[in-house]
Design a protein that fits this description.
single chain; 98 residues; mainly beta; Jelly Rolls; 6 strands; 60% strand
Length: 98
Amino acid sequence: MALYSKKTIPLDAVFDRLKIVDQGTQLPDVTVLRLPVDAADTVFLHFGEGGEPVDLIQGMAIHITPPEDNGVFVSSTVAHAGESLKLLLGYVAGGAVP
């Protein structure tokens, strides 16, 4: 059985590497459920503490092999008042869902 959770991240402020999944949690799947139109090229995912930024696109599904277990982070280089990023996070069965 797959384990999933939704995560909503407010984009009201600029932030760098906000942790959304703790280190040690195995995460093989991320889907972008909602990305504000004006947030393209300003909101990024990072896989692992030192991971390079990954541009996000509305509806994008990312499958990570092997599953990421060094944490997952989000950065926003521009504030988007009243807007939020919504992600669907898929976890390895048998693991903890934060």
